[in-house]
Sequence to fold (282 residues):
Amino acid sequence: MNPATVLEIPRNLYDFQSRYLELGGYRLHFLDEGRGDPLVMVHGNPSWSFMYRRLASSLRSRFRVIVPDHIGCGFSDKPDDSVYDYILESRIRDLETLLETLGVSDNITLALHDWGGLIGMGYATRHPDRIARIILLNTAAFHLPEGKRLHWSILYCRRSRLAGYMIRRLNLFARIASRIGCRQNPMSARVRKAYLAPYNNWENRRAILRFIQDIPLEPSDPSYEPVSEIEKQLNRLSDIPVLICWGERDFVFDLEFLKEWERRFPAAEVHRFPKAGHYVLE
Fold:
């Protein structure tokens, strides 16, 4: 058993029943709460389903709220690279398998943050007839906007062996994200501890680094072509209502990403939060 699976998160912060789906010898953890039309919330890196806790609690009286932890994240298993390919295509396939197993195939609302944008839109562009609404929270589902460069700190983490060591040895990426991801209202110590809890040792931090390394910048990168295909197919979702809630003080998913979303979905309802950072829900 992974050490993260036995960690206790205070019930007053995360009051849900854990469920698991077997995926080829390892388990994907997810929440499945309430009844009604499905609301599927997809997290990014370095967070987990905990990020959606307040939305899940408040909306499970009206929706069937489904919130997976990606493999390697949260309370899902954290297999070795020899067992699991930590790339975008695997993430999309996992989401597809989960929803098909649960019999969820109609009138889906997607809530997407960070890497959840690519994963969720990867699913949506393959099954546009299943999607009723989309909620976007500081995310992307396309290559870098024209003229945009990836922030130097992410490039450094992606390319440097020293940074990779620090991410896995000291949980540096998740620790920094929990500090600077909330600009207006910093996370309390209890909330920050809960964000970090599943990533409590070298092995359990594998996915954090693999997500960073999987950022596609060159055609030779494993996830470059899948992102190109998602980007090309976004127009299949042009008639679907889109809500965008954006923290304007996110130094990675900044206003240039928001402008790209607005260009692609000009009818979207947009709410800007000038003082909020990356973890806009916090």
In short: The two ends are 31 Å apart (CA to CA). The longest helix spans residues 88-101.
